[in-house]
Amino acid sequence: MTYSLRLTQVQHQTLRDHLFPGDGKEAVAILLCGRRSGTSRHVLTVREIHPVPYEQCTERTDTRVTWSTDIIDSLIPSVISNDYSIVKIHSHVTEWKFFSDTDDASDKALFGSIGNLLGDAARHASVIMLPSGELIGRAIVDGHIGDFFSSIMVVGDDLVVWQADRSTLSEEFSLRHRQAFGEGTISLLRSLSVAVVGCSGTGSFVVEELARLGIGKLVLIDSDCVEEKNLNRIVNSSKEDAYLGTYKVHSLAKAIARMGLNQQVNPMPINLISEEAILAVAECDIVFGCTDGVESRHILNRLATFYCMPYIDVGIRLDADGHGGIAGISGAVHYLQPGRSSLLSRGVYTMDRVEAEGMRRINPELYQQQRGEGYLRGIQEDRPAVITVNGIFASLAVQELLARLHPYRNQPNSQFAYIGGNLAEVQLCTEPEGEPCNVFKSHVGRGDMKPLLNMSGIL
């Protein structure tokens, strides 16, 4: 079992402001966290921050902080009712990256008491913040000090990841990548897990590029099989795949295996709108959405919020004029971070369209009836698809991930929440991060719950 922690950029800054007030003394705060309780990975997602007031500390020096645990007593009802994990976080006033003997004794006493109070002290954690902002954490399992977190990620305009260990790639394979993005970024890619939802024209390009960048684990989700009509745009698909009705995810998984880069691949030929798929995505570090439907985009945006994940969405629009010509070619890449703007608040879709797509999936007869009677408007059916257009915007999406992990732009990443392109005009435009989405912002870090994502209709 490995353990990870995820929090937003705003949460990280709130903690830093409290833990380093400028007086050169240690401080402490309590985090209430949701989680993704996986079979091999346990992810904590910061939900609430409760700073311990300085005046409630009986001792604050440059090497220790002693404080009243009354604050935890007041939080227990919320912990029980919401099934939260408790994380203690305190500061070190130097860049010393280790838990001290004092820290060990404090954690044993604190989480032993929590265990006596809750009857179960599993799934909690202790974290240190250094003056640089770096976070180092360890799990508390059944009241005992456990393993160090394998990773801690801050999700914001930039993606900041601290890891206990980083994997390596062969010198020959990674040489050109290292020359562009440095050893640290390339080794980080090898340690990341990425979910790609939608593995057709655009998604197959995303998968190909992520695999050749050396991403350590790929989770591929798409319930469709390869058909002959797909061969014009799904990278690595074949006539044999179409003849055999091979699942798209299995076709891509075979291609990754042929690369011989020893990556983990989990092909899942199922619909995203299922508990199995959602929980598999939630265990990953990052998710790419390469789907046409608004229902799946709504769920991905919601999932990324609940589990504090970065979400990169790529969409294509290619309109034929009905006479063998092209009326318009455009595409867009959206970078979404929990607690900020969403695809909904950016106007990419409306809830009416989400509900209509849900009806088409659950009750296609009623959908066709209401569509025919004019009750459902603005519903998009199949559009033309061209491999060159898919390749352009898929590459922009993968490049967006690299830009967030290894900021290289002349302007801050906050200016690039959206990148859109109109190939008829041969131009790209960008938009900065907007105001927080009122629909999603209250769900940041909620993690596992019933019903999943606080939604009905998940299979």
Gyration radius, to the nearest Å? Answer: 23 Å
Count of individual helical segments: 12
Count of domain modules = 2
Distance between the termini: 27 Å
Class of secondary structure makeup: alpha/beta
Quick one: CATH superfamily of the largest domain? NAD(P)-binding Rossmann-like Domain
Strand percentage:
25-35%
Mean pLDDT: 89
Write up this protein.
The protein is α/β, with parallel strands linked by helices and 459 residues long. The chain has two domains: 154 residues, Cytidine Deaminase, domain 2, CATH 3.40.140.10; 284 residues, NAD(P)-binding Rossmann-like Domain (Rossmann fold, 3-Layer(aba) Sandwich). It contains twelve helices and 19 strands. Strand 6, helix 3 and strand 7 form a beta-alpha-beta unit. The protein starts with a strand and ends in a 28-residue tail after the last strand.
How does the SSE layout of this entry go?
Blueprint: E1 2-8, H1 9-19, E2 28-37, E3 41-51, E4 57-60, E5 65-67, H2 70-82, E6 85-91, H3 101-118, E7 124-129, E8 135-141, E9 144-148, E10 151-155, E11 159-163, H4 171-191, E12 193-197, H5 201-213, E13 217-221, H6 239-244, H7 248-259, E14 264-268, H8 275-282, E15 286-289, H9 294-306, E16 311-320, E17 326-336, H10 351-362, H11 364-372, H12 387-405, E18 418-422, E19 427-431
Parallel strand pairs: 1-3, 1-10, 6-7, 12-13, 12-15, 13-14, 15-16
Antiparallel strand pairs: 2-3, 2-6, 4-5, 7-8, 8-9, 10-11, 16-17, 17-18, 18-19
